[in-house]
Amino acid sequence: MAGAKVTIYQVAARAGVSPATVSRVLNGARVSEESERLVRAAAEELAFTPDRTARRLRRQYSEVIALIIPDIENPFFTALARGVENRASAAGYSVVLCNTDDDPARESTYIDIALADHMAGVILAPADEASDVSRLVARKRPVVAVDRSLNRDDVDAVTVDNRAGGLSAARSLYAAGFTRVACITGPSTVETAQLRMEGWRQAERRHGGAGGDELLRYADYRVDGGRAAMAELLALPEPPDAAVVANNLMAAGALDALYDVGLTPARFGLAVFGDLPHASFSRQGIRVVDLPARELGEAAANLLLDRIAGDDGPARTVVLHTDRRLESR
Amino acid sequence: MAGAKVTIYQVAARAGVSPATVSRVLNGARVSEESERLVRAAAEELAFTPDRTARRLRRQYSEVIALIIPDIENPFFTALARGVENRASAAGYSVVLCNTDDDPARESTYIDIALADHMAGVILAPADEASDVSRLVARKRPVVAVDRSLNRDDVDAVTVDNRAGGLSAARSLYAAGFTRVACITGPSTVETAQLRMEGWRQAERRHGGAGGDELLRYADYRVDGGRAAMAELLALPEPPDAAVVANNLMAAGALDALYDVGLTPARFGLAVFGDLPHASFSRQGIRVVDLPARELGEAAANLLLDRIAGDDGPARTVVLHTDRRLESR
DNA sequence: GAAGTACGAGAAATCGATTTCGTCAAGAGT
DNA sequence: ACTCTTGACGAAATCGATTTCTCGTACTTC
User: Fold this and answer.
1) Quick check: B14 CB within 7 A of strand C?
2) What are the tens digits of pLDDT across the range B97-144?
C-alpha cells in the first residue's frame, strides 16, 4: 500500500470529519458511534499510524522509560533489564536500554536524551558515585536508582542487603572449615563494594582475623581485575585458603587464576556475589550469594510506575534480600 | 538552575536576536560572529537544551537507530549489540535496544515504533522467518538484517557461513576419532539451524553416515531444548559418541545432560556454534566454532550507516567467516 | 556610478497530533 | 413556552525547533 506518510488530516478527509474528531476517536474521548465507525474505517483503509513524535511534542510526554546500565554484557544487568521490561511492558510502556560502559560522560548524555525526549522516567544503575541526576530531579522527572543508591534522600532506590550478603558469604566459608578467608571487592568508591567488604570484615573479626588489609583487595568488578587480585593473594607469603568475591565477573577471573596454579574450588574456598548463568559456579563447588537481579528490575519498575502515575510521597528505598544458596554442596 | 523548560525563544530574547538565528547557531549555519557569541552566551546562562522531539518532528529524522533482538539474555546478542553500539556511537548515533523474546508480535510493535519515531534505521535480528519488514521498506527506511537473512533481495543482510561452520565442526569431531556424530540444531524453520545442520550432514555422509535422521534433533535454541535433545540421543539403542550443537545455549543444556549420566566432553565429543563467555567451553574440552558476534554487529552498523548516508545501490549480503578454534585442545 | 551578487537576519510557515474554545442542536427542568 | 444543560464536533491555537521567504545593506564588477 501507501509508501507515504498518512496523517490525521487524510483520515479526517476520508471519513468526512475534522482532524479533531479523529484525534478524539484515537484517544477514546466522547464521539458519536457513527463518527467513530467512519474514522476507524478510514484509518484502517489508509493504514494510518499516528506520528508519535508529533503526539509527544504536544503532550510533552511519552510512554517510554529509559534504563541506563553500565555494562550490557554482564548477565546481572541483562537479567535486571528483563525484570524491568516485564513490568513495564505489562503496564504499556516500552523500555529503551542505554549502555554506558561505566563512562559517566555517556551516562550524562543518556540522561540528557531521556529529558529531551520527554521520556516518562529513568531507571538508573549508576556508573559511579558521581552520577548526576539533579537535572532529572529539577525537572521533576521520575527516577529510580537500582543496585547502587545515589546517596540522595529525594530519589527512590532499590538495593540488596549487601552487608548481610557479605557476612553470610564469609561465614559459610569459615563454617566449611576454611581459616584464612580473603576478600576481593570492587572499587573503593562504589557503595556495593564497600558494603560487601564490610560484611566480610565483620565475619573475619569474629573468627579472630587481624582486621588488617593484608587479605583485602580492591579490584574493578571485571574479569581481569579478579584474576589479578587472586594471583596477588596466592603469591602472598602466607596466602589465604578461601575468598569472598564481590561480583560474578571477578569470580570468573579469580577462578581462572586458581586453575592456573592447579587449585580448584574444592580446595580453595570461593563464595561469590551473583551467579553467572552458564558458568555453573555451583557445579564447581563455588558458594553463590544469589542476587535477585530480575526482582531488582521489577521492584525498580514498580517504583517508577508509581511515580509516573503521580505518587509524589517521600522517596522510598527498597532493600531486597540476597537468597542464600550457600549451604548447597 | 531553572527547573522549567527553556526554549529557543527565551534564548533568542536573552540574546536579542530572532529564534531563527538561535537555530542557525545551533546547527552551524552562517551567522555573524557577534550573533554567535551572544547566542552561545545566552544558551549557556539559561542551560538551554534543544527539545529533540520538536526538532525531530520538523526534520522528520532522528539520529537514533533501533536494534531489535530476540533475546537480550543471550550473550551472542549482547556481544552483537556491543558491536553495533561501538560503530554507531562513533558516528554520532544512539542505539536503542529492543528485546522481542522471539515474539513476532513484539517485533512488529517495535518496528512500528521505529517508524513512528522517525528513527534513522533499523537493525533486525529476525525472530523467525515471518518477520515483516515490508512497512520499513515501503517507507524507504534503511534496514539491515543480521544473523539471519530475510529471504528478500531488497534488504541488506549480514550473516556467517553457517554451512561451512557446521561442516568443520563435524569434521573436527571425526578427526578426533569419534565415529557416530549427532547433530542438535535449532527450529527447522530457522535458516541458521538448517544451514548448520546441512554442514554437519555433509561431513556425516563423507564419513559413511547413513544420511538418516536418527542422529538429528531439532530443538529450540534454548538451554532446556538442548538438554532434552541430548538426553534423547543418549537414550538411543545405539547412541552417538559425539555431537554438533548449533548454538551456545543448547550446548549448555546438552552439557548438563552429559554430566547427568556421568559423561564429560573428553569422552563424548562436543562441538558448538558460538561461545558462552564464562562457561569455559574450551577449558572443558568442547570444540567451539567462533561466531564473530561483535563483528556481525559492526558490519551491520556499517551497512546501515551507508544507507542512512544515502547509498541506495542494490542490496548487499555480507558473509563473515566463522573462526575455527577447533584444533584447540 | 549603475547593476549585480552575497550575506546576515527577522517574519512567518511548517512538521502532525492534541486541546482549548465556541457553536449548534437536542433534551431537561420550571 | 423559555432558559439551562449537555454532548458532539469544527476552527484554530499550541507544542518547540527548523526552514523557507524576503528584505536591507555591503561589496563587486564593468
Assistant:
1) no
2) 988 888 888 888 889 888 888 999 999 998 776 678 888 888 889 999
Do A59-160+293-322 and A162-290 show the same overall fold?
yes
- Nearest partner of A159 among A300, A287, A275, judged by Cα: A300
Closest residue in A to B281 (Cα–Cα): A279
Please tell me if residue A31 touches chain B, with a CB cutoff of 8 Å.
no
Number of Cβ within 10 Å of residue B237's Cβ equals 5
Chain A neighbors of B270, CB-CB under 8 A? none
**One CATH from 3.40.50.2300, 3.40.605.10, 3.10.20.30, 3.30.1490.100 for A59-160+293-322:** 3.40.50.2300
Cell matching residue B85: 553500539
Model pTM score: 0.86
Domain A162-290 sits in CATH 3.40.50.2300? yes
Q: Which residue is nearest to nucleotide D7 (CA to C1')?
A: A30
- Residue owning grid cell 557461513: B161
Which three cell numbers mark A282? 555451583
Residue B195 DSSP SS3: helix
Map grid coordinates 558515585 to a residue.
Answer: A129
CA count, 13 A, side-chain hemisphere, B297: 24
The C-alpha angle with vertex B251 and arms to B245 and B254, in degrees rounded to 5, equals 100
Domain ranges of chain B: 8-50, 59-160+293-322, 162-290
Pairs of CB atoms within 8 A across A/B: 111
DSSP string, B53-65: HHHHHHHT-EEEE
Q: What is the pLDDT of residues A225-254, one digit of tens each?
A: 999 999 999 999 999 999 999 999 999 999
Contacts of A292 (CB under 8 A, 6+ apart): A160, A320, A321, A322, A323
Nearest residue of chain B to residue A7 (CA atoms) = B116
